[in-house]
Amino acid sequence: MMENERRTTIPPQQEAEQCEGIAHAIKRFEKIMMSRIYLQQRLGDRLKVSIRTGMIVMFLIAASILMLLITLSVQVKRVAEVTENMNVNFDKISQNMVTINAYMQSMEKQIAYMPNIEGSTQFINQHMKDIKGSMTGITSQVRDMHQQLTTVQQKMGTISASVSHMNQNVSGMNHEVQRMAKPAHTLNKMFPF
């Protein structure tokens, strides 16, 4: 029994050393935990800043895309209007072609009469007057067609200018999107995970 008491009883000096060791271990554990909490807070702050920056960049990209869509819709409306005007001009041209075809058929009939009009100069003169009238009509129709084609060329120039303006806007948007994406690239380099 005495031996058991001797074994379980620790000398006071040794007990004090053990208490100091435990206190030192607890302090070290506290320091480790505090540094870990500090690191987690710093990581959390950096993550918040990264998320906010990413959200701002995404908002700017969305705004750029919205502006691009608005620009494209306006340009498409202009192109649709010009195309509609071109359709009207092409309808007029087709009508003029029908009229010219009618004049050409009339001329064919009049030319077919020419072998039979050798005996009568009056008959020839009359048909020549008709041919002259047909030629006048053809000249008028060709003049109208020329005006319609000039209008079509002007409309094509307007479409070309609109498409060029659209290309410039798209290039500008592309440059802006690349410029706004640079902070996100920098963040990706800083935080590769």
Shape: rod-shaped
Indicate how many domains the architecture comprises.
Answer: 1
On the 0 to 100 scale, the average pLDDT is 78
Structural class, please? mainly alpha
Q: What share of residues are in beta strands?
A: under 5%
Sheet with most strands: none
**What is the correct CATH architecture?**
Orthogonal Bundle
Helix content: over 70%
From the N-terminal CA to the C-terminal CA, the straight-line distance is 64 Å
Number of E-state strands? 0
Order of helices and strands: HHH
Q: Which regions are unreliable across 5 or more consecutive residues at pLDDT < 50?
A: 1-7
CATH topology: Helix Hairpins
Query: What's the CATH class, please?
Result: Mainly Alpha
Measured on Cα atoms, how large is the radius of gyration?
A: 47 Å
Query: How many DSSP H or I helices?
Result: 3
What does this structure look like?
By secondary structure, the chain is an all-alpha fold. It has a single domain, classed as Orthogonal Bundle (Helix Hairpins). Helix content is 92%, strand content 0%. It has three helices and no strands. It has helices spanning 2-8, 12-112, 121-190. Helix 2 packs antiparallel against helix 3 (121-190). It starts with a helix and ends with a helix.
